[in-house]
Write a structure and sequence with these properties.
With 196 residues, the protein is of the alpha+beta class. The chain has 8 helices and 7 strands; from the N terminus they run ααβββααβαβαααββ. It has helices spanning 2-15, 17-28, 69-79, 85-92, 107-116, 138-141, 153-157, 159-162, and strands spanning 29-34, 41-42, 48-61, 98-102, 121-130, 167-173, 179-183. The strands form 2 sheets. Strands 2, 3, 4 and 5 form a 4-stranded antiparallel sheet that branches. A hairpin with a 5-residue loop joins strand 2 and strand 3 (48-61). Helix 3 (69-79) packs antiparallel against helix 4. The N and C termini lie far apart (81 Å).
């Protein structure tokens, strides 16, 4: 028996060291991306045609939850409108730790959800594009997708200028997925304001 234990330890430490080290590094050492606030679109008089505002989005950190997927998703779905319970349970049972529940949610739903104090359910602020003049010149101004990238019109054409430069932090996470050390990058570069 002693010989078998020694042989197995040798196999793990010598032969399988690289694969376990790589797996551990990928779980512990991760990159965290920070998108800057998108620049404003202005007309000749300096009036705002397109501006980004911070809105809440709901996510689940699977490693931090204490309830079964069905119970947790059921409680969320009672409060947050438009949640596809079956799809969310399917994604919850997958391999990803970070799962979007719903993006760009109304503040009222966030307040109700926070009252439940569900472990592993969090809120992250994200930019959402607003157009103060509504549909006026909508085809020219264009649109921005949910991830903040220009999808059409000037928003798409000027995307490299308006989106700015994101920042990447290297983070170290513990076994539960909580950050215990973080190396900050150079800082986000906000998007340019564009107009005449």
């Amino acid at each position: 028996i002693y010989g078998a234990v020694v042989a197995r330890l040798g196999q793990l430490q010598i032969l399988m060291h690289r694969s376990y080290a790589k797996k551990t590094a990928s779980e512990v050492l991760q990159k965290k991306r920070f998108k800057p606030m998108r620049g404003r679109l202005l007309d000749r008089q300096g009036r705002v045609l397109g501006v980004s505002v911070e809105v809440p989005s709901i996510f689940i950190s699977r490693r931090e939850t204490e309830l079964t997927p069905e119970r947790l998703v059921g409680q969320i779905a009672r409060i947050v409108s438009g949640v596809d319970e079956r799809d969310l349970i399917r994604r919850f049972k997958g391999s990803a730790n970070f799962i979007w529940v719903k993006r760009q949610v109304a503040n009222e739903e966030i307040q109700e959800l926070r009252r439940l104090r569900l472990k592993g359910v969090g809120v992250q602020m994200e930019p959402k594009r607003r157009y103060p003049f509504g549909e006026v010149a909508g085809e020219l101004i264009g649109t921005v997708g949910i991830d903040g990238d220009g999808a059409s019109g000037l928003e798409r054409q000027l995307n490299p200028l308006l989106q700015g430069k994101e920042e990447v932090h290297v983070v170290l996470r513990d076994a539960l997925g909580k950050v215990f050390a973080e190396q900050e990058g150079a800082g986000v570069t906000p998007g340019w304001n564009w107009g005449h």
